[in-house]
Amino acid sequence: MSLIDFEPERFYYTFAQHPPALRVRPGDRIRTWTIDSDNGDLEGNTVPKERRQPGEGLLEYNGLTGPIHVEGAEPGDTLVVELEAVELNRADAFGAVHSHLSLLGDDMTFVGPTGLKPPIQGRAYHWALQGKDHTQAHLELPNSRIGAVTIAAHPFLGCFGVAPRWGEAIHSVDAGNHGGNMDCPLIRSGNTIHLPVFVPGALLFMGDAHAAQGDGEILGGALETSARVSLRVDVLANRKLTWPRVVGPDSIATIASGRPLIDVIRILHTEMVLWLEAEYGYERFDALHVLGQVGRVRLCNIVSPRYTAALEFPRALLPPVCEQHED
Length: 327
Known about the structure:
By secondary structure, this protein is mainly beta.
């Protein structure tokens, strides 16, 4: 097992079969960093064009670190990524009320879904990340009676995934069964992410660090910033996944993306029932019944081309004898 410091040289805007930027082996640990969603580096300086994915008309948003090629990972395997740390490294983050890409906006049309009204007014916000480890986010609100707000930071990676199947290239504002722009707060320090492998080496990408975000990312953005990331990779051979999963200290979770949202919720529950049946010894409809009482659905992103949600199940209800199957 090796510890590798990876300094990214180019940032990508698509999850695709780009040339590997780094080759590692199962068990290796990697330390690296991500730019913010608007191409700002660890100091907030804009990454030059020559370090960005080239392409005419390419939306240069949610730049990705990677791809990391994991030796031995083959289609039909599971890539296991233990997120040891997602650490905020800057003293600031930015957010906005977007005029189009938001819950109350106009879904990228700029003139309203019917064309009969103008878009809502956009507004930018600048947050200060405070404390030794940037554990608090502070915002001045001179136009509001409260004057200012301070909230707890909960850093995570908005973009996390592998190269998609069938040779697709999927933009980093979208999500799918490869992962992608899931905007899921469960992609955080201390959790282990399971991803399906579709291409040799899996080709792992990450980016779009958030200091905080409410459920759904309803504004089309969160508290956007950069981050340092430490992780360990492994491969489960011949363990085919359909959608990403998360194993945490208190819960396990399934993640799915698509439209309409009801289909995403159906996928989440189907995937969790099958997981509980196959690896934890639950009878199928017993699993469904218990899940119906204790399952917790989190809306992760409801503004991107495909919506994303996660379903959590408490580890307290998992048989101890099955712990060996998790990672």
